[in-house]
Amino acid sequence: MTAIVDRNPTDTGGGRLAPLLERLSRQSVSKGHNVYADIAWDEADMAISAADPRVGLFAFDPLASTDWYRAQDAAVQQAVGLHRIAAAMKVGMQFENLLQRGLLSYAMRMDNGDPEFRYCQHEVIEEAQHSMMFQELVNRTGLPVEGMPVGIRTLATIAVPIINRLAPELFFVLVLGGEDPIDYLQRRQLREGTTHPLIERVMRIHVNEEARHIAYARTVLKERVPALSRTRRYLLSLSVPFVLSIMVPLMVDAPGQLAKHHGVPSEVLREARLTPEARLLRKESVAKLRRLCRELGLMNRSAVRTWRRVGLYQRDLDQVAEAA
Ligand SMILES: [Fe+2]
Ligand SMILES: [Fe+2]
């Protein structure tokens, strides 16, 4: 059995990873998407614009509950709603880009015959498809959508390959830190509301494929974390809530650019971020990840304090995540 140079030898072979990789690789072939063949971008019903009554904010978006939003006419609500979804897709595209860089650098270090190489490449290809899908949707809205703040984007571009090399377990936390909140929001949007058919098609493709990516990242963590030294496990336990405190608002909160482009007052955006519903939404978006951390022994007292300090801790929600 060959192994990745920096991986503990107990990680491959008899563990959960090898059979999962085989199954996921097979599914990537049989169920994978080509987003330009599988989405009818040019069909009349798929045309998307702020004039469409189906593009307002999702009902559970905290911004949708503000007095300001409720007082706007349909045209403003639709413009805000479409910009909000397109901005989330842009952040999603940038996250996919960073994820591909990390996976490519991870795959580069694998030996001949390592089954993880094939699955990593399948995932890179799928994330490339998602990047194109998200960017195509943004382009079709015609909106001047911005993604992550430049500082975060620049830092992440430099840091991701380094983290991936020095602390692969933290890299897989970053993977879930992006994938879990996006997946949570998209599943909820598909379950609870009606939306534009193009947005729905994009979300369904993404949710289907992310199930494989999430299973992979979770299993890698289950294999790797128990093999870490106590010190590395402790450092990881504190890093998780810290990195999530940066990633979750990027994925979950309404972006500041709505003020610049649609005149949403900054204090309304702030009010929407601070409501109990918004706090709960951020906590819910990482409930599965929080539960995984508990399973992996990453919820020591200092870690719980950090989770609480960044506003992402809630024990009750983890039972819900278990049932979901
Ligand atoms: Fe993706
Ligand atoms: Fe993914």
Characterization of the model:
This protein has 324 residues and is mostly helical. It has one domain (13-323): Orthogonal Bundle (Ribonucleotide Reductase, subunit A), CATH 1.10.620. 71% of the residues lie in helices and 0% in strands. It has helices at residues 17-31, 35-38, 67-71, 74-108, 115-141, 150-166, 168-192, 197-224, 230-252, 257-262, 266-274, 276-285, 287-295, 301-309, 315-323. The relative contact order is 0.13. Residues 1-14 have low confidence and may be disordered. It binds fe (ii) ion (2 copies). One fe (ii) ion binds next to helix 5 and helix 8.
Give Rg in angstroms.
20 Å
Bound molecules: fe (ii) ion
From the N-terminal CA to the C-terminal CA, the straight-line distance is: 36 Å
Work out the count of structural domains: 1
> How many DSSP-defined strands?
0
Instruction: Estimate percent helicity.
Output: over 70%
Beta-strand content = under 5%
Specify the overall morphology. globular
Q: Return the average pLDDT rounded to an integer.
A: 93
The CATH homologous superfamily corresponds to Ribonucleotide Reductase, subunit A
CATH class: Mainly Alpha
CATH topology: Ribonucleotide Reductase, subunit A
Number of helices: 15
Q: Which structural category fits the helices and strands?
A: mainly alpha
| Level-2 CATH architecture | Orthogonal Bundle
One letter per element, helices H and strands E, the order comes to HHHHHHHHHHHHHHH
Low-confidence stretches: 1-14
Query: Tell me about the biggest sheet?
Result: none
